DNA sequence: CCAGCAAATGCAATCGATTGCGCTAATATA
DNA sequence: TATATTAGCGCAATCGATTGCATTTGCTGG
């Protein structure tokens, strides 16, 4: 139970009567090693069940083959799906991923960056916390030349590669769809305006209204925490104001469920009287009554794209290319909650 | 942009005129270093912005401070919440977690174990894939003395510490609740019978029936993949068989949503005509119409407990204790789908 | 005043793999 | 046949931190 037979390249070197250097080169398929020797090494390695020590290798050439990921919280379908995408892509290339959560806490985010740096990750991908309005903690990352990728919750205040969906276009589409369905007094649920994705969605929403010749009414734009309770509160607020809205486009699925609940509570018919559209395509949107229209953010693809970007960055190492910004198309998913014209 | 000023203990040693040994000891708060020197070292370290290289340290003393986690898929609330629990607990103790997914694929699981071993993780926590019926790939882990913890999807065929919820008791409770509500023909949705948790839930289900004096009817137990479509199929199957069930206790939330959809499609009233209970407390169960009763598996707590178990194992290293099996209490959450007596 | 001991630090090996440089022998070129 | 090449491999340093053992310095007690 405690047999610590550490098998190293020296063991296999001894086994076949060469030096560790040769074994190392053979294992790495170095051109200056004869095919015969390579074969012997490989066989001996297999025979004595040799496992390379990545830590030693990492120390030597400064590459840990580790990618650090920071998300606000992992137990949210959107983020865990992104992580899934990254993991898939990275694993296939012999990289492992390390997860950290910021809990939308600025301080925790700073600490985590530090921890990842300590762990000597080869790259960092992050989705910014909601309260992150200063970016000095990324300076160290950039300065060390460690590839950094922002996904979804990004910022333009830093010259960093990023992967986002087309928030503007999808918000535009969603709003347009509501207009097509005959809704004319469309409210919008949004979050703190410091975050770009919410700004973009608001922009798409108002642009769609404008293009349709509908005046933008700022009283119909309600800020909240974008959670279930936030959606409930925002809905009650709208009702109390008596502004007579007939649809809601929410920048979050959670908030739109809150709205759905509040409206059903007072017998408002969805979608006949009020149309609803959320954002993110969380799994539960399919299961509500009625099912909620929403925007699919293609989380897994976003993860894969982020990972791909990382590998591009390390491929042409040295040549610092201009900032790359990949925008993925999102998908408006139309379900019952916004379909009153059949 | 390419300033690679690698700062090591040697730099700080030179700075204050001592050797690296002293710096190392000072940094690790070794008792044989004078307080004065320690102070100098700490200050110098801060001054030149020294960051310890964990990789070098890991190589030296064989500890990577990394915990490997294997889950079938990360983008399932239950698993991502467990990961969250583990990450929280581990992070607070200066350990990082590495995520891998098995996709319920046996081969991938084997490869992943190997990859984690390569990465020299200090411990491994896994939730077995659905198709894993052989456990030889864990031998290497055990033999190397690397702490291994199974959570949720475990097996007794290996002497490994595990953390589970009381599947039997919670299934018993759920079934009992249905009986209390007056349902008498309770069907059960389950999965492949090789997995212990499903066996346990089935056992709890049948025991509850027995204790209530209701005969167990195996025709009411339906196997499926436990996904949405599986639940739909199982429901249609039951309906076609014309067995006259009046409730379903499903070992999965996804399958019970499938049942809900099928039943609503043919105007069956929930919970008046048929009562439903799922398992896992996935977020969407709260949002369906009616809201689904389910069993809360306390995922975050399970993650924390698993992590705690790991730290116990490395604490008294060497002394191999007997196998520890922690069983957490689960929580029956009663919502509308099973409440017809008010 | 000196042996004796403890406190504080230095020395050097080590963890395992990698790699620049050098050496040897074989093949090629003149 | 003598020299220039090149293939194939060994030597030894290196990555950065850790640690057993040795050494130095300072202090105590006789």
3D architecture notes:
The structure is a homodimer of 342-residue chains. Chain A has 342 residues and is α/β, with parallel strands linked by helices. Chain A contains twelve helices and twelve strands. Chain A starts with 8 loop residues before the first helix and ends in a 9-residue tail after the last strand. In chain A, the strands form three sheets. Chain A has a six-stranded parallel beta sheet with strand order 2-1-3-4-5-11. In chain A, strands 7-6-8-9 form a four-stranded parallel beta sheet, sandwiched between helices. The mean pLDDT of chain A is 93. Chain A has three domains: 1-49, lambda repressor-like DNA-binding domains (434 Repressor (Amino-terminal Domain)), CATH 1.10.260; 63-165 and 299-328, Response regulator (Rossmann fold, 3-Layer(aba) Sandwich); 167-297 and 332-338, 3-Layer(aba) Sandwich (Rossmann fold). Chains A and B meet through helix 4, helix 5, strand 2 and helix 6 of A and helix 4, helix 5, strand 2 and helix 6 of B. Strand 2 (96-101) of chain A pairs antiparallel with strand 2 of chain B. The first copy, chain A, binds a DNA duplex (30 and 30 nucleotides) through helix 2 and helix 4. Chains A, B: Keywords: DNA-binding, Transcription, Transcription regulation. Chains A, B: InterPro entries: HTH_LacI, Lambda_DNA-bd_dom_sf, Peripla_BP/Lac1_sug-bd_dom, Peripla_BP_I. Chains A, B: GO terms for molecular function: DNA-binding transcription factor activity; transcription cis-regulatory region binding.
